[in-house]
Amino acid sequence: MTESYYEFPCEYPIKVVGPASNQFESKVITIIETHVEDLPSHRISRKWSKNKKYLSLTFTIKADNLKQVEAIYKDLKTFELVFMTL
User: Fold this and answer.
1) First-to-final CA distance of the chain
2) pLDDT band at 5 (very low <50, low <70, confident <90, very high)
3) Domain count along the chain
4) C-alpha to C-alpha distances, 16 to 3, 65, 79, nearest whole angstrom
5) Using one digit for the tens of pLDDT, what is the confidence trace for 35-81?
6) What pLDDT was estimated at residue 4?
7) What range defines the domain where residue 24 resides?
8) Within its chain, how far is the Cα of 11 from the centroid?
9) What's the rounded mean pLDDT across residues 12-32?
10) What's the CATH code of the domain at 45?
11) How many CB atoms within 10 Å of residue 47?
């Protein structure tokens, strides 16, 4: 990811996929909130897999800079329940 593709600040979507559990959802929200000053609930969308085994969370954040976005992905990567981030 290079900063030349983005003009900060900007609206930036982050998708996180993992098991459909309260633990997964609450921890991912906590991770995002440590990096984003204001994250209203309407900026989080949830989509369950067909059999409701997996949950996809999409956060549309106001990204201030590339370092902020990279730090979010780095912290998400350390959480063992995260299967994938986009």
Assistant:
1) 12
2) confident
3) 1
4) 22, 20, 11
5) 998 899 999 999 999 999 999 999 999 999 999 999 999 999 999 99
6) 56
7) 11-85
8) 13
9) 98
10) 3.30.70.260
11) 11
Per the domain annotation, does 28 fall within a domain? yes
Mean pLDDT, to the nearest integer, of 27-41?
95
Give SS3 for 26: helix
pLDDT at 29: 97
**Contact (Cβ atoms closer than 8 angstroms) between residue 55 and residue 26:** no
Does 4 reside within a domain? Answer: no
pLDDT value of residue 24: 98
Residue of 84, 78, 43 lying closest to 61 (CA atoms): 43
C-alpha 45/C-alpha 64 separation (Å) is 21
Amino acid at 81: L
Would 64 be classed as within a structural domain?
yes
Considering the domain boundaries, does residue 47 fall inside one? yes
Measured between alpha carbons, how far is residue 83 from residues 20, 26, 39 in Å? Answer: 11, 15, 23
